[in-house]
Design goal:
The chain is an all-alpha fold. It has four helices and no strands. The radius of gyration is 27 Å and the shape is elongated. The termini are far apart.
Length: about 90
Amino acid sequence: MFLGHQQGKLKQIQAGMIDNLKPVRPLAPSGVFLLALAVVFLAVVAAGPLLLGMNGLGCGSPPRRKSPFFAALPLARFRSLCPWLDR
């Protein structure tokens, strides 16, 4: 008896859902979101030196000044780790 009541309720919910289905607008391709993220990232990176100045590079010893660039070297190999980028 209880199972039959659930089946009837399920059919009622299903009928109500089918009647209310409306098409949705599809999302933009993933490249658009990647481009937007890159633009925001580059804007933040460019705004830092414009607002705060380039005073940080003059501080510290020569090895300390080069360390951010050496830290970025592994990122340069990202393309070789992602074969799907080579089209």
